[in-house]
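Record type: ASSEMBLY
Status: queued
Input:
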Amino acid sequence: MSDRSKIGQRFAELRGEEVVYAIHRQERTFLPARDHCPLDATRPGEGRAGYQTEIPFPSFEIAVFDNLFPAFQAPHGAAEVVVYTDDHDASFATLAPERAEALMWVWRHRYAELGARADVDYVFIFENRGVEVGVTLHHPHGQIYAFPFVPPVAALELAADRRLGGCAPCALLERELEDGRRVIHENDAVVVYVPYAARWAYEAHVVMREHRPSLLDCEPEELRLLAAALQALVRGYDALFERIFPYVMAVHQAPTVGASGAGAAPAGAETGRGHLHVEFYPPLRTADKLKYLAGSEQGAGTFISDTLPEESAGKLREAIERAA
Amino acid sequence: MAGEPVEPPASGDPTEIGQRTRQDERTDQHERTGPVAIARHVKDDGRALILYTRDTRART
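Status: finished
Output:
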């Protein structure tokens, strides 16, 4: 287990936010050789005798384990790794539809179990794809940070609920459907659009049509359609520039603060308190140019975008159709 | 011992989350989430490992 003394947080007064220190993460595995991937199944007799991966089984479908280099650890949260498949060369985009649907159930299970803990206020499921966003292991996987506090982005979304007088994602979805120019994919349960005020050139939001605070509130068919929409988007991303498209995928759900105590407010119980949606932040602005967070973004907190969301949406819509 | 199955953690107080997870069934022998079977293990260093396998017999 990791040395907890190496994990801590400090409050940055000027920004009004927590900064987490996990010093041991400097030592984490960094782009290992293909035959030493710690997220592969452990397959003795393939020329790497003695090498045991994180998953000591000869095969598996989906695996979740405690991160060896956690940013959070009990009794102050948790950090888990979610391995989508034992196929090292696969990706979320290439998973069979049934596997992608199963992944939604795994996310749901982890949200329920971690969110019920007294030391967890927010369950954040995410995937970093590509070295452009700091990936250190290429094997298809995501992560879960179970925060011991509600992080700033989740708090901003709750503030947007208050500002708009109800569920902000519900209101924004209605606006996007009414406008229509930025909608890039739809099915019976999910709408995908480039948001009106996208910060990244090809940012996209995958939003449940009905008000669903979390995965726990979804019907099984909605989970299937969520997986289908996510795969359609990621396949469209890969088709856009005919290359593996890097992104950060962030699953936004209701905070779980108070969910463990008798009489406490349950997650998502208040109207508008969280609405399940998945946000994608791809750093590419062209096939070979990255958007960097520089002076204005870091020093002033204001994104300067080189592209119009309506134009990006048109290109992404076409790419999704081409990849279907 | 890596690979040894372990009992799932005991349930806590009944909560909204707990009530909404009843689609996730648990018996002494089998635990699942929707159509996915759950197998819990503990790695050699004490970290938890959960393997999820789609149960083609289960209906969602």
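Annotation: Helices of chain B lie at 16-20.
Annotation: Strands of chain B lie at 31-33, 36-42, 48-54.
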